[in-house]
Design goal:
This protein has two domains: 2-252 and 458-475, Aldehyde Dehydrogenase, Chain A, domain 1, CATH 3.40.605.10; 256-447, Aldehyde Dehydrogenase, Chain A, domain 2 (3-Layer(aba) Sandwich), CATH 3.40.309. Helix content is 39%, strand content 20%. The protein contains 15 helices and 21 strands. Helix 3 crosses helix 4 (98-121). The longest helix is centred in the first third of the chain and has 24 residues, at 98-121. Residues 13-477 form the Aldehyde dehydrogenase domain. InterPro entries: Ald_DH/histidinol_DH, Ald_DH_C, Ald_DH_CS_GLU, Ald_DH_N, Aldehyde_DH_dom.
Length: 485
């Protein structure tokens, strides 16, 4: 059991304002593995006041960007030295297989910290531009202010790093609000922030429930909210931010399509679909969950996916041989099972899997990897974000119909096309409305490239230079020509 009785506010461990607790339950054993203090609204007020003081009067926003880069590089060194410990925490609280936790939940965020510091080290913080009317114009890029970073449970370290690190490099003060399901890794990170030597007030970490999160999002002392979560919650966040004209970026849900052209190999597509989301039991926002296959080869693709997913080793996430663990909560498991039952009722063909628990895994919130074939675009399993290990295969007659089906969704986060003709793949990529796309692979999450969605998948971008710029305001300064007296 990990016990945390204090909150990290303004760079210090302090006594919370209430005695409320958040209990962390293992998705594998269904037993408690931790308990942490839950922030109340008074704790939010205290964190915002500390952040405002740090931003409005403290040194961090006024520090030379090169010094901020060096501070974050110290943080990266501390992070790198304790990667395995962090991976074990994530595996215990989320059920992510330890191999996946080490690679995607910790090593990937670690590399992202390095990528962001490299971007910030060469970033043009100030630019001189000749004006049209003969005057000089100076463009300054300045920190946006106090940032509330709201992070979900599925990829907590990755999403924390892609929000908090660029905000800090920009010169902002940050309040991190982790999900109630994943507070342990966030509090672990708080210790590293303290050790890295950030100035007082610059960082706070507040595990909290939804009501307290709403208080943070709607707080008038917040200048920007960066939110990752469901589309339904994103709409509520956007409405709350509108009341104060608070800047907001939203990375929301997805129902991404993998378009397999007639020249694609079903086994290759199946492996890419597996890699895109099964490591976290399908609980990945940009997972390829809709496979669009030529109608004449529909069974080939459904069978290849069924064969690929049936080889996944499911079990204890702490076992290095495990390839897929449980879903994060009982509620999430029941939700996914309900979608599977709906697919059966709607008349889709179950190629593999189903809503029954995997053999020998009656304890833990496990769901079988499931493939549906003979799916139509109108079915709920083809339209709703399931957020579990469920893949649907839909037929199309020609390229035009494939693109139409891919775009026939409220979401627009990611997608892919598989073909031996890269030029044709790029043409299709330009016609699918999404923020990211892959050709012959799932989207790679390259740290040099911006990531985000369109439509109901949100707005704003993380990663790349654009991820840093999302925490900066542009200031234009015009300078009059010398006056001759």
């Amino acid at each position: 059991m990990q016990e945390h009785g204090q909150l990290f506010i303004g760079g210090e461990w302090v006594t919370p304002s209430t005695g409320a607790r958040i209990e962390v339950i293992s998705p594998h054993s269904e037993k408690p593995i931790g308990s942490v203090a839950a922030a109340g609204t008074a704790d939010v007020d205290r964190a915002v006041a500390a952040a405002r003081q740090a931003f409005d009067e403290g040194p961090w926003p006024r520090t030379d960007p090169a010094e901020r880069v060096e501070t974050i590089r110290r943080l990266a060194a501390l992070y790198g030295a304790r990667r395995d410990e962090l991976a074990q925490i994530i595996t215990a609280q989320l059920g992510a297989p330890i191999s996946f936790a080490r690679r995607a939940q910790v090593a990937l965020p670690f590399s992202m910290i390095g990528a962001f510091t490299d971007i910030a080290a060469t970033y043009p913080w100030q630019e001189n531009r000749p004006g049209v009317y003969g005057q000089d114009v100076v463009l300054r890029r300045e920190p946006v202010g106090v940032v509330a970073a709201i992070v979900p449970w599925n990829m907590p370290q990755f999403l924390t790093v892609t929000k908090v690190i660029p905000a800090l490099l920009a010169g902002c003060a940050v309040i991190l609000k982790p999900a109630p399901e994943s507070p342990l890794d966030a509090l672990f990170l708080a210790d590293l922030f303290a050790e890295a030597g950030l100035p007082p007030g610059v960082v706070s970490v507040l595990p909290a429930d939804r009501d307290v999160s709403a208080h943070l999002v709607g707080h008038p002392g917040i200048d920007k909210v960066s939110f990752t979560g469901s589309t339904a919650a994103g709409r509520q966040v956007a409405a709350a931010c509108a009341a104060n004209l608070t800047q907001v970026s939203l990375e929301l849900g997805g129902k991404s399509a993998a378009i397999a052209l007639a020249d694609a190999d079903p086994a290759t597509v199946a492996k890419a679909v597996r890699f895109s989301g099964m490591g976290m039991a399908g609980q990945i926002c940009n997972a390829l969950t809709r496979v669009l296959a030529p109608a004449s080869r529909l069974d080939d693709y459904a069978d290849a996916l069924a064969a690929e997913l049936s080889t996944i080793r499911i079990g204890d996430p702490s076992d290095p041989d495990t390839q897929m663990g449980p879903l994060v909560t009982r509620r999430q498991r029941e939700r996914v099972r309900g979608h599977i039952d709906t697919g059966v009722r709607e008349g889709a063909r179950l190629a593999t899997g189903g809503s029954a628990p995997p053999a020998g895994l009656d304890t833990g919130w496990y769901v079988q990897p499931t493939v549906f074939s003979d799916v139509t675009p109108a079915m709920a399993i083809a339209r709703e974000e399931i957020f579990g290990p469920v893949i649907v295969v839909l037929p199309y007659r020609d390229e035009h119909e494939a693109i139409r089906i891919a775009n026939d969704t409220e979401y627009g986060l990611a997608g892919s096309v598989f073909t031996t003709d890269t030029a044709r793949g790029l043409r299709i990529a330009s016609q699918v409305r999404s923020g990211t796309f892959g050709v012959n692979q799932g989207y790679s999450m390259d740290p040099a490239a911006p990531f985000g969605g369109v439509k109901a998948s949100g707005y704003g971008r993380e990663l790349g230079r654009e991820g840093l710029e999302s925490y900066l305001d542009l200031k234009s300064i015009s300078i009059a020509a010398d006056v001759v007296g």
